[in-house]
Amino acid sequence: MIEMQGVFKKYPNGVSAINGIDVKINPGEFVYVVGPSGAGKSTFIKMMYREEVPTSGTITINGVNIAKLKMSKVPIFRRNIGVVFQDFKLLPNLTVYENVAFALEVIEAQPKFIKKRVMEVLDLVGLKHKIKMFPSELSGGEQQRVSIARSIVNSPRVVIADEPTGNLDPETSWEIMKLFEEINARGTTVVMATHNKEIVNTLKHRVIAIEDGRIVRDEHRGEYGYEN
Ligand code: ADP
Ligand code: ADP
């Protein structure tokens, strides 16, 4: 469960990106976050994985108020959240296998378990045959598959994605969406900021629209609602 209460975020340069948000996201939900550029979508999402801290208000994730989380507890908290970015953010000097294994190696999981689990998630995203390749040797869609595998390798309860199809062609975007649908079908909460009108209007889920740092619309199986 993700809950925000009275959340405001003002950046050090004086920009008020989030101006009072109250929202609840239940376990297992799939939520699209939509809105114009500069509306505050990224800030909203970044606060959920504690990349940004709110200026005021509470953000409770799995029972913990992460607005008050000590720096030393942040890495432990992040293990329960998978994050997927528009630009993939893979480590260029590591292979596909190593990029995915990394998250398990830092928590010192058993080598046998790491191998089994990494192959399992790479199989899920359809990249078992490319484990020895480097990110630069893969297409954009394949790189995003690796980053999705990395996001779920720890079996997080929540996966957060910031414009995951923003750099991909339409066909590849649909393939990537299939993976998020599958991850969600297995019980993982998915929160996704997106500008992809066709996807939002076709694969129907809850839609939260943000404008000027406020929720202006929150609909069950909603529409994208913008021209683009
Ligand atoms: P969106 O994701 O909807 O495009 P953002 O959350 O990125 O919106 O941005 C919301 C507002 O906050 C914008 O005015 C943006 O310029 C500003 N902003 C975003 N990140 C920062 C930052 N690190 N420092 C200062 N201002 C920022
Ligand atoms: P897409 O059209 O899906 O974006 P690409 O045309 O970029 O795909 O790549 C097609 C195939 O070629 C992919 O399977 C990818 O792994 C492989 N490939 C792309 N770039 C390279 C590269 N620099 N070195 C080796 N293989 C590559």
Question: What does this 3D model show about the protein?
Answer:
The structure is a single chain. By secondary structure, this protein is of the alpha/beta class. It is built from 7 helices and 10 strands. The chain has helices at 41-48, 74-78, 96-105, 111-124, 140-152, 170-185, 197-202, and strands spanning 2-10, 16-25, 30-34, 56-61, 64-65, 81-85, 158-162, 189-193, 206-211, 214-219. α3 (96-105) packs across α4, α3 runs parallel beside α5 and α4 packs across α5 (140-152). The chain starts with a strand and ends in a 9-residue tail after the last strand. Residues 11, 13, 15, 17, 35, 37-43 line the site of one adenosine-5'-diphosphate. One adenosine-5'-diphosphate binds next to α5.
CATH topology title = Rossmann fold
* Pattern of helices and strands: EEEHEEHEHHHEHEHEE
Percent in helix: 25-40%
Sequence of strands across the biggest β-sheet:
6-7-8-3-9-10
CATH architecture: 3-Layer(aba) Sandwich
The number of helical segments is 7
Radius of gyration: 17 Å
The CATH fourth-level homologous superfamily: P-loop containing nucleotide triphosphate hydrolases
The overall pLDDT average reads 97
State the domain count: 1
Show unreliable segments.
none
Query: Tell me, what's the shape?
Result: globular
Please give the alpha-carbon distance between the first and last residues: 30 Å
- Beta-strand percent range: 25-35%
Annotation, overall tally of beta strands: 10
The level 1 CATH classification is: Alpha Beta
What does the largest sheet look like?
A: 6 strands, mixed
Distinct bound molecules: adenosine-5'-diphosphate
Structural class label: alpha/beta
Subunit structure: Homodimer. Forms a membrane-associated complex with FtsX.
Subcellular location: Cell membrane
Keywords: ATP-binding, Cell cycle, Cell division, Cell membrane, Membrane, Nucleotide-binding, Transport
InterPro entries: AAA+_ATPase, ABC_transporter-like_ATP-bd, ABC_transporter-like_CS, ABC_transpr_LolD-like, Cell_div_FtsE, P-loop_NTPase
